[in-house]
Amino acid sequence: MSRATINPPAPPAGPPRRGTPARAGGWRRAVPYLLALVLLAVGAFGGAVAYRIMHDHDTLSSAIIKTVVAERPPSDVFGTDRIYVLLLGIDYNYDDKDQPYSKGARSDTIKVAGIDFPSKSMKLVSVLRDTEATVNGRDAKINEAYSVGGEPLSDSVIGEFLGMPLNAQGHHFDRYVVVKINAIKDFVNAIGGIDVDVAENMDYDDNWGHLHIHFLANHRYHMNGEQAQGYMRFRHDACSDPCRAKRQDQVIQLLIRKLKGDKFNDAVHLPQLLAAFNRNVETNLTLDEEKSLAFGFADANTADLSHADVIGYVDTKETPYDGEVLVPDEREKTRLVAELLGAYGNVTPPPRSAIAGVRPSSVHLVVDNGSGVSGLAGNVAAKLEKDGYVVDAVGNADSFTYDVTQIRTASRVPYVGERVRSDLGVPGAALAPSADATPGPRSVVTIIVGRDYATAGAVAASTPSAAPLH
């Protein structure tokens, strides 16, 4: 079984960004990555099979058949091309008998994720836990919403704070994921630990906080979950929170790398992974939804799933009940929310050489007009035939309301969609798997031409042409 390793973090230059309180818990920056872990592990094929065997008491063959049949792209399962998810991280309290409990805990981490299926990317907006908001009619810290009314009140308070639109069910967010503090510890244990290079001496004990950290500099440790969690939470060095944040990123990268790269390890530890998820994560995602996300995002680059922007603050103020709160930067909030609701795209485009390796003569196209502009599909078909593609059919889409061109491929050959998008000359065209998996060796691609193609064509006509890929 392989062991994942990664270089230790280097101390960052400069002070931490204003607007990130120094007392933020060491595990909290891990929350944006936990959704990536869910996408990679929880809904995986083997996990779905194991679940059907254990939960539905299916035979192995029956579970495999049901899982294969149920494999559908996320857009079909959710009935939309994008969902908005409320991510909350809650801490434990300890009672007078030193037993942990989470009832009444505040959401010390608050993040909103937009998961876009065509582009296989995710945008995250983080809200500081002490941000001023209206909770049950009074001025309070935004993290109080969870302690008072759980996920339903959090949906209302956080959604209204951000100005998120209501969906058909009357909620601001389509799904929610609530993560407990021990999630990272249990995930590390579930995959058999991780190898971590430690850059500095760490010697710290906090009996009340159940934190014991003892590591030597320039050593590699095979850490279990408790050790990894302590390593992530350590802040008693020269640069405090900034270095702690780097260590958190280091551990999460190791987790994701091992989940993606060590397939045998995943299969061996599936029961533990499922148990860790059930113990530490509360969500209204169904099993089929989790599975569709895992299949749909299995080949996504983690850089497209983990970047988060933080809404900063411009001032502080005192409130009658909650003490000091942070006054948010409204201009920054408006900008970040507009980006969250707007167009998505990958931050890690595939290599140009890989796209160039796709031969147009091996790709069969169906071109449909979804723009309502007469003749646009025919123009696209003629252009791509000239480039060497095989056009099987030209027609109209299910509607003429497509603003963004869709490129839907039934082929599992890498980068077919990216090659078609490049030759089409519409960088913002959305890529998605096709539900029509036409049998045979051909690479079938359906293009639904949107109104953006006409705009892109006008720009291209006034710009010197680039060298072709073929």
Based on the structure given, which CATH architecture of the largest domain is correct? Answer: 3-Layer(aba) Sandwich
The percent range for helix content is: 25-40%
> Helical region count?
17
Let me know the number of strands. 21
By CATH, the topology of the largest domain is Aminopeptidase
The average pLDDT value, as a whole number, equals 75
- For the largest beta sheet, what order do the strands appear in spatially? 13-8-1-4-5-14
Assign an overall shape: globular
Summarize the model shown.
The chain has 470 residues and is α/β, with parallel strands linked by helices. The chain has helices spanning 31-42, 45-55, 60-70, 74-78, 144-162, 183-190, 225-233, 241-261, 263-268, 270-280, 287-296, 303-306, 330-341, 352-356, 376-386, 416-424, 452-461; strands at 82-90, 93-94, 100-101, 107-116, 121-127, 132-135, 138-141, 175-180, 194-198, 202-206, 211-215, 219-223, 281-283, 308-311, 313-319, 323-328, 363-369, 390-396, 406-409, 430-433, 443-449. It is globular and about 70 Å long.
Task: Please give a handful of descriptors for the protein shown.
single chain; 470 residues; alpha/beta; Aminopeptidase; Alpha-Beta Plaits; 2 domains; six-stranded mixed sheet; five-stranded mixed sheet; 17 helices; 24% strand; globular; disordered N terminus
What can you tell me about this protein's structure?
With 470 residues, the chain is of the alpha/beta class. It has two domains: 28-341, Aminopeptidase (3-Layer(aba) Sandwich), CATH 3.40.630.190; 352-461, Alpha-Beta Plaits (2-Layer Sandwich). The chain has helices at residues 31-42, 45-55, 60-70, 74-78, 144-162, 183-190, 225-233, 241-261, 263-268, 270-280, 287-296, 303-306, 330-341, 352-356, 376-386, 416-424, 452-461, and strands spanning 82-90, 93-94, 100-101, 107-116, 121-127, 132-135, 138-141, 175-180, 194-198, 202-206, 211-215, 219-223, 281-283, 308-311, 313-319, 323-328, 363-369, 390-396, 406-409, 430-433, 443-449. The strands form seven sheets. A six-stranded mixed beta sheet has the order 13-8-1-4-5-14, sandwiched between helices. Strands 18-17-21-19-20 form a five-stranded mixed beta sheet, covered by helices on one side. A two-stranded antiparallel sheet has the order 2-3. Helix 15 links the parallel strand 17 and strand 18.
